[in-house]
Amino acid sequence: MDGKKQMRVLVLDDDKFMLKFVSHLLRELGVSEVLVAEDGRAGLCVLSAQVTSVDLLICDIEMPEMDGIEFLRNIADQNYKGKIVLFSGVSHDLLKATERLAIARGLNVIGILSKPVTVDSLTTVLEQLLIPVPREVTRARIMQIFDEQEVRQALVDDRVDLFFQPKIAVLSGNVTSVECLARWHHAEYGYVSPDNFIPIIEQSSLINDFTRDVLIKASQQLDVWLQQGLDLNISINVSMKNLDRFNLPEIYAEAVSECNVPINRVTLEITESKLGKDFAQTLDILTRIRLKGFGLAIDDFGTGYSSMETLKHLPFTELKVDRIFAHGAAEDPATRAILESSIKLGRVLGLNVVVEGIETKADYALAIELGCDEVQGYFVAKPMSSDELIKWLSEYKNTNDERL
């Protein structure tokens, strides 16, 4: 039996879906023995019951009963010698602090991951263990945790809810808009992130109806907010798979107008790395979308291969700098240079520049210093339900000066 088959992994997380997701990925990568536990106390029980040692722990920090920090303290006292990966939805600074604490206790931490964990980020960490990925394993196959029938039924049952993440104007500190993010409310796993079901929708015949439904739900919610006196705009993500019909601008304009919402309050976000398969058709559709009054954002800017050419030809109104160029830019000169040049480019072209992935006060301060227009990220707020957003907005008005 080869090395990768002998590796034994224990995953600790109170999120049942995350346990399934990580276990699924590990097995696809060739790890045959994956153990799971839903909190630190259960993890200790699993470890104590093993005859053969566990080679890798993938450990959440926030768990009930016994959290990750308590768990790490206990296994350090037990002289655990295996490798450890920490992951959590807490701030990056707190995650790094936990890593330093674990190392100080003599534990072998080989990586940290922020939630939501992606296939790429987890695979990068696992590569440090010299686990060769089988040739037949593709990213698409790894992502297939659910099948098309499950997703199709979820849409029929209206199980997809919208969460909203605020964007803040740096000059005024006001909340200007929210990005609308789809979450599958799964009966067993709770809310499932879009990375785990949108690819299935894109590969099926569901994507056009799905995006239109999201646009309608978002517009209906915006109508409620406007009637409540909230001065907000919304943005929704549009798949390149949607840009296959020349009448798309009419379809979207009609959907928004029927919700009594001004079209100019809606921005459609297109991911840069997926642009350009049929450039003439894309240009035709996006130009007419702008003619209808929609805002148009190029999302994840800097991650594609034709950024300058894309900005030159397509009628964007907003540039969203990808989070990989925001987080840690205050400490990394190369990352800062990319962030600064991206912001300058957007400003020169007259675009509204949004920096995504702001997770710390240092990230926020640098984005302001470099001259962006808006910021978005966990330092400001996580995605939340509409009810949570209303409560958050009320609290934010009283605390924004102190926090930011």
Question: What do you see in this structure?
Answer:
This protein is of the alpha/beta class and 404 residues long. It has two domains: 3-143, Response regulator (Rossmann fold, 3-Layer(aba) Sandwich), CATH 3.40.50; 148-403, Alpha-Beta Barrel (TIM Barrel). It is 43% helix and 20% strand. The protein contains 16 helices and 14 strands. It has helices spanning 3-6, 16-28, 40-48, 68-77, 92-104, 119-127, 139-143, 148-156, 198-203, 207-227, 248-257, 279-291, 307-313, 333-348, 361-369, 386-403, and strands spanning 8-12, 33-37, 56-60, 83-88, 108-114, 160-169, 175-186, 190-192, 233-238, 266-271, 295-301, 318-321, 352-355, 374-375. The strands form two sheets. An eight-stranded mixed barrel has the order 6-7-9-10-11-12-13-14, surrounded by five helices. The protein has a five-stranded parallel β-sheet with strand order 2-1-3-4-5, sandwiched between helices. Strand 13, helix 15 (361-369) and strand 14 (374-375) form a beta-alpha-beta unit. Helix 3 runs parallel beside helix 4, helix 10 runs parallel beside helix 11 and helix 11 runs parallel beside helix 12. The longest helix is centred in the middle third of the chain and has 21 residues, at 207-227. Residues 1-5 and 133-142 have low confidence and may be disordered. One of its GO terms (biological process) is phosphorelay signal transduction system. InterPro entries: CheY-like_superfamily, Cyclic-di-GMP_PDE-like, EAL_dom, EAL_sf, Sig_transdc_resp-reg_receiver. GO terms for molecular function: cyclic-guanylate-specific phosphodiesterase activity. Keywords: Phosphoprotein. This is EAL domain, c-di-GMP-specific phosphodiesterase class I (Or its enzymatically inactive variant).
